[in-house]
C-alpha cells in the first residue's frame, strides 16, 4: 500500500478533498445564508480531525 493510499484510508470519507469541497464552504460564507455565523472554525477535512 502506498503512503497516499494509507493516508486516504485513514480519513473517514476515504478520499482526498478537492477544490470543489472548499468552494462550497466559501460560497456559503460569502452569502447571506451565513449572516449569523460569527467566530466559527469551519473544518473541511473529510472527517480527518475526528479520527481516533
UniProtKB/TrEMBL annotation:
It comes from the Archaea. SUPFAM superfamilies: NAD(P)-binding Rossmann-fold domains. This is Short-chain dehydrogenase/reductase SDR. It comes from Natrinema pallidum DSM 3751.
Amino acid at each position: 500500500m502506498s503512503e497516499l493510499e494509507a493516508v486516504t484510508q485513514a480519513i473517514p470519507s476515504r478520499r482526498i478533498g478537492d477544490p470543489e469541497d472548499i468552494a462550497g464552504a466559501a460560497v456559503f460564507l460569502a452569502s447571506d445564508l451565513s449572516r449569523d455565523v460569527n467566530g466559527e472554525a469551519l473544518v473541511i477535512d473529510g472527517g480527518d480531525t475526528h479520527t481516533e
